[in-house]
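Model the whole thing, not chain by chain.
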Amino acid sequence: MSILRKPGLLLSFLMLAVTLLAMIAPQLLAPYDPYASVGAGRLLPPSPEHLFGTDHLARDVFSRVVYGAGLSLTAAGLAVIGGVIVGSVIGLVCGYLGGAIDFVAMRFVDVLIAIPGILLALIVVATLGFGPLSIAIGVGLGTAGSFARVMRSAVLRVRSEEYVEAARTIGVRGSGVLFRHVLPNAARPVVSMAALELAVAILSVSALSFLGFGAQPPAPEWGALVSAGRDFVAIAPWLSILPGVVILAVVLSVNRVSRFIGGDR
Amino acid sequence: MASVANPSTFMSIVRFLLPKIGQCLFVVWATYTVAFLLIHALPGDPVLAALSVKGGDATSTDPAALDALRARYGLDGPLLQQYVVHFLDLFRGDLGVSIATGQPVVDMIARTFPHTAALALFSLVLGFVGALLFTVWAYIARPAWMRNVVTQIPPLGIAIPAFLSGLVLISVFSFGLGWFPASGTNGFVSLVLPGITLALPTGAIFFQVFSAAVFDAGASPFVFTANAKGLAQRTVVVRHVLRNALLPSITIIGLQIGYLAGGTAVVETVFSRDGIGRLTVDAVLARDINVVMGVVVVVSVVYAVTTLIVDALYGVIDPRTRTRITRTKAVSA
């Protein structure tokens, strides 16, 4: 297999597999209870018993990171899925109908893309209140614009293909043409972009959670773990840096795998 | 430049700039509209939310007092009226009153803006220079695997979370070596670490554009000629390759401002600096929708004005893009 000759890609797949396991069954990976003090002492440095050390309440940080995967990655995943759905619907309708609706809607999409994603997310969080779901909605909204644009241009390309013409000629209804013939053939660029956007969403979600807009303590969200460790960065830098490195590793792995999906082997 | 006095040239410049200024206004209006729609379409009462964060007995205020508060913060009356009135207020430089502090939003932003502008400019310069150095290194690196390694490094800058790079820099250079302060807003020394943190993603974006342009130029006939006639490699790289790579970087300044606007929120929090980003974070924590709205509008103005300046400058820097002015001149002559 050619994938075996790409150590980086192999490592990325491995990393994602472990992360997925942490999301589904954290108790298999985490050696300790993420919420309870392990009694071994506070602010311990990394050791074989406590891979990432212990925090100010003597909780095992590695276990907290493992349990945090669920909250953080679900929020990022929801953001991308929401963005894909909203963006695709807008792009599909605009590209297929054209005309005035297309023009007006796409101008708003332009603005949605021009506003920095994090600002959009901050507006949403300030209005809706804090929590992983608000963050997911905010981040998802920021990605919806780009998905709309990509979907629209894909639809425009596919719309004039011969098989679409043929379907229309033999009398397939509008919705049939749209969902049977246009959508499946226009979806590919959106899917490969969704994979890339997932990495961006993980970064945005963890940044917003770091700023304190996500799940409230003691919930072990990734960004919040870094933020909690930040108070002890002078005496126990590993508390904030190791969870941060996990986020980086996951982002890099998602990037690598999404490039693989996108066709860059 | 004597031709500027020529009325037809002047008119063509006006004709070139007017639509761009219109575009500027559109961006600000549309941003304001999207933000306004979001705030009022999502569930939740901004005044109640802000009061509940303030806590205490403030939440049990009677309806009359609540209405008075809404009026004070400009959140009363029909939505359409709010929308129009606040938009017109923008032109008078009035961004409303902060719900959390009671101060005019304009004053709060004006007080913090210089700190953020200094940080953003510094990191733009750092990112630009860093990306340039990496580009040259990648261009001259031999053998091929070495070049591959070099081109793999800068993209990391965009994958690394700003809080991670910031905290690593703090633990190494503040608590480890004691070279730079870990926090604060006092002079240039306090600018270095946050500047580097912010320069990582900006540099990564610059590098993407530079390297694409450089390897394009490297494969072009004029570089082949320059090499063939025996020019020193340094001359070829500087005079022929880099010059062509710098132009596209100007067009992505708008994109960079987007990144900086998001990045400063995290970086200013990590380094406990005063600035727009920290102001925004505090405003969101206090559910102070008026300040958040003010920041969004100011960022869109900065974005629009920068884009306008870049567009106007582009014609000066790259003669090939002057066609629109010269074409109208040729027609009118």
